[in-house]
Amino acid sequence: MKRINTLTSLFLLVYGGLHAQEALLSKEEAANLALANNFGIKVALNEVEIAENNKGVLNSGYLPTVTASAGANYNRDDSVTEFPQQFDAEGNPRPDIDISKAESQR
User: Fold this and answer.
1) How many CB atoms lie within 10 A of CB 23?
2) What pLDDT is attached to residue 21?
């Protein structure tokens, strides 16, 4: 039993080692692979694409812009105007003015 385990282990080590290696790359293949996976080059290519997109008139910021704003105010309140210590021609106190549901707009 021990011999079978040893042979099986030896077979697995030899067989696993044979398939673990990848094919060798030439210098040109290695350089092309490095250039294709280089993050800095990918970023630079994206920046070139963005610049080409932004060079048109519509994306360059040369067109005029229009901004507008508006506002409104509407109040509906009861209002009382008092006249303290004021008297009419006959000496009677001047009555307060009561305006119900007054509306104002601006």
Assistant:
1) 5
2) 64
- Is the CB of residue 94 less than 8 Å from the CB of residue 88? yes
**DSSP symbols for the chain:** -HHHHHHHHHHHHHHHHHHSPPPPPPHHHHHHHHHHT-HHHHHHHHHHHHHHHHTSTTTTT-S----------EEEEEEEE--TT-B-TTSPBPPPEEEEEEEEE-
Q: For 22-63, what is each residue's pLDDT tens digit?
A: 778 889 998 988 888 899 989 999 999 988 888 877 777 777
Cα gap 8→33, rounded to integer Å? 38
pLDDT score of 68: 94
Phi-psi region of 30 (alpha: psi -120 to 50; beta: other; left: phi over 0): alpha
Residue 96 CA to residue 82 CA, distance in Å, equals 5
